Amino acid sequence: MYSQPPPGGSQNNAAPQYTEAIARELTSLRQTLNQLTAVERDLESQRVQLQGQINRYTEQAPIARRMNHPDLADEAMARVAQLQPELARVQAHLAQTVARQREVTNRQFALLRQTSAIGGASAPSTKPQPFKPGKPKKRRRVALGLSLALVVIVLAALGLSQALRATPGQPATSLAQTQPTSPPTATPSPSPTPLPPIPAFSPNGTGPTDQQCLNALGAPCYSPEQIQQAFGLTALYKHGYDGAGQTIVILGTGRTGTLQADLHHFDQTWGLPDPPSFRILEPNGPPAPYTCADQADDLQIENTLDVEWAHAIAPGANIVLVIGANKPPGGSPEDSCGLYGLVDALNYALDETLGQVVSISYAGSELGYTFETASQHAQDQSYYQYVDVSFRQAASQNVTVLAAAGDEGATNSNDLTKLNAYWQQPNISWPADDPYVLAVGGTTLQIQDASGTYGGESVWNDGNVGYGGASGGGLSSVFPAPDYQYGLLNQELFHNKRGIPDVSFPAEPSYDLYASFETGIMGQVNPSRWKHWDITGGTSIATPCWAGLIAIANQMRGKPVGFIQPALYRLRGKGMHDITSGNNSYGGVTGYSAQPGYDLASGWGTPIANQFVPDLIEALDNPDYGCPGYRTPCG
C-alpha cells in the first residue's frame, strides 16, 4: 500500500517519485488483468462446451429409452454424471478468476484516485473499465448401417476486390442477380487482411491427364488444378486463401494403413503441399474385419478419396480423420461394410473440438432396410431424432456439418448386403436429410481444356444401375421443412417437408485418385505408368470438396461460418452456377428435374468460389442481406 508523503517532506518534491511508483504498479496490474482475462475466456469456453455436452446427453437419454435401448440411456446419464463434477470445477475456477479480476480492477481505481489527488502526470490517461463477467454461460449402437455414397469405376473477407471475383466461371443465375450486390450502406465492409499468394501448383507429369483418360477409357479424369480453376478457387489462392489455420474433420471407418503415404504421393504428383497436419484417430479402436458386397475395399477407398480431395480444395487446412465403428451388434463381415458408429464419432469430434468443419460421406435410406422388423423401423425414426440432438449441438458450436445426398438418385438401397436392391418409391438419405446438415448433391461437369476452363454442368445421372449412379435428392419423410426453406418461390416443391440437396458439386466419376492398395482402372490400362491410379466420383467426393470450401470461408471470415443454411437460402443462388438440366430418376423410380433457382436434384447449384465465399460471408455478417425467406415468399 502507498501512504501520504512522510511528515516534514516536501509534497512537491515527493510527487514525481510517488506517481512513477504508481505508474509501475498500474503497468503490472494491467499485465495481470490481461493474463486473467485470457484465463477467463479459456474457462468460459470450457464451461460452454461442458454444459453443451451435458445438455446433449441429458436430451438423448430419454430418446434412447423410447428406442428400447436402456444401455444407451444409461451410458448417456453416466456421461452426465462424469461431466458435472468437471463443470463444477471449471465454474469454481471461473468464479475465482472473476473475483481476482475484480480485485485487480478495484486496485487500479484506487491508484488512479490517488494519482488524481496529487496531480500525477505519469499515470495512464485512460481509466480501465470495470470488469463485467459474462453470464455463466450420447450414443447409439443399434444396427442402422450407412452405405458409402461412393462410386468407383473403370473420381475475402467482405469487400474483396473485383479482381478476386473476375475469374472464369458461369455467371450467377438471373434469379440470383435480382439480389442486392452489396449490403446496405449503413453496414461498412471491412477490407480483407492482406495475405501472400499461394504458390502455383506444379504437377510432376506422372499422373494420368484428362486427355489420357479420355483416350484410354472415353471418360475424363480431372486433376486438382482443373477443378480448382473451374470453380474459381485459383483466384482465392492468389489472395492467400487456401484454408490455412482451419481443420477439416472427416468421419469415416475402415482401413487406413496406406493413407499417409498415398496422400503424399497424390500431393507430389499434382504439386500440392502436404497438409500442415494430418491425423488419423480411432476413438473406438481399429475397425472390425469386413467384406463389401462388390468385393472391393470400399471403406478404405472412401477414406482415401475424402482425404485427398478435401486437401486438394483446401491445401492449407489441417485434416483429422476419425475412424468410427463399422460392426453392427452380432453382424457378419458382410454386414460390417458400413459406418455404424456415426453418432459416437460425431460426438467425439464435438467434445474434443477437433475442427469447425465435419464431412460425412456415408448415407442410408430414411426407410431403413427390408430385413428390418416394424419395431426396428420405429427405432430408426427415433434414432434420427437422437442424432439430431448432436447435429443441433454442432450448429450451436458454429461447426458446419456436411453430408452426401446419396448416389442412387431419388431412391436408395434397401439392403446393404446386396447389389442393385432399391426401394421402389421415392426416398432420401440420412443424415443429409437432417435440417442442421448441409446436404451435398452431384453434377456432371464439362471442362473445356487442360487448364480447367468451365464448360457447364447438368444433374449427375449415369442411368447405369449398378455401375453408375445419380445425385440423391427429394423430400424427407422424417423432418419437416426448416424455416430457411420457407419463402421460396417454388414452395410447392416441398409440401412442408425438408428437401435435399442444399448444394452440389461434380460427382460423376471423373476425379483422379491414388490408392496403393488397389491396381486402379488406369493402372489396368498401363501398369508401368499409372499403377494404383483410379477414377472415382459420387456425392461422397462432392461432400469433402465442399468441406474444403467451407474451411476457406472460415479462414477468409476470420471465424467459423458455422450453420450456413439460413444465409445460403437468403442468397438464393448468388455466386453459384445454376444447374438447369438433367434429373435424378433412378432404379425405376421417377425423380426430380433441374430448373432455374432451387430444385430437388441439384439444390442451389455449384459454387463459383471466388464469388460465393465473399457473398456468403456478407450474408452471414448482415442478417438483413438478401431474401429473408422465413415463411414469407420473396422474389
Descriptive key words:
Rossmann fold, 3-stranded antiparallel β-sheet, alpha/beta, 8-stranded mixed β-sheet, 635 residues, 15 helices
Description:
This protein is of the alpha/beta class. It has 2 domains: 11-118; 154-621, Peptidase S8/S53 domain (Rossmann fold), CATH 3.40.50.200. 38% of the residues lie in helices and 13% in strands. It has helices at residues 11-66, 70-118, 162-165, 210-217, 224-230, 233-238, 259-270, 298-313, 342-351, 374-396, 521-525, 527-530, 539-557, 565-571, 609-621, and strands at 147-148, 151-153, 247-252, 278-281, 318-323, 357-360, 362-365, 400-404, 429-430, 438-447, 454-459, 474-480, 497-500, 503-506, 511-514, 533-537, 576-577, 606-607. The strands form 5 sheets. Strands 3, 4, 5, 6, 8, 10, 11 and 14 form an 8-stranded mixed β-sheet that branches. Helix 1 (11-66) packs antiparallel against helix 2 (70-118), helix 1 packs antiparallel against helix 10 (374-396) and helix 13 (539-557) crosses helix 15 (609-621). The protein is globular, with a radius of gyration of 28 Å. The N and C termini lie far apart (69 Å). 52% of the residues are buried. Mean pLDDT is 83; it is low at 1-14, 119-145 and 150-191.
